[in-house]
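Input record (one chain):
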Amino acid sequence: MHSLLTTGQLVVLAPALVAAAVNDVRTGRIANRLVAFVAITGLFAQYVEHGWQGTYTGVSAAALGFACLLPMYLMRGMAAGDVKLMAATGTWLSVPLALMATGASVAAGAVIAIAHLLWNSGARGIAYAPAIALGTLITIFLA
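The corresponding structure, as predicted from the sequence alone:
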């Protein structure tokens, strides 16, 4: 039997991550409304599933994702929307899963960036939401 969080990860989080990735590739932006939707629904699902402890877990996992990507934002290696998306994604995860998803997202971003440089010499920057989506979805399906 699937829990609300597991079902929500597949029904809410996965499509939202795909939408963020597509929008980021097309426009170079991640909508704040989408990020807020992911965060609010993730915290709600955590609360329904585990009460206030679940809310604490969701906030902690969000803070972890935010803290891990913040240095890259401060060094101008990614945009604020990417950091916010990783934080919002964390609300749907446990702290260990958020750490794994963030690590997998960074690894996916590195692979995407290298491929981008090989096929587009001289090009600068990549849309990072696809890396966040890929890393997070791989983590969810392997967990």
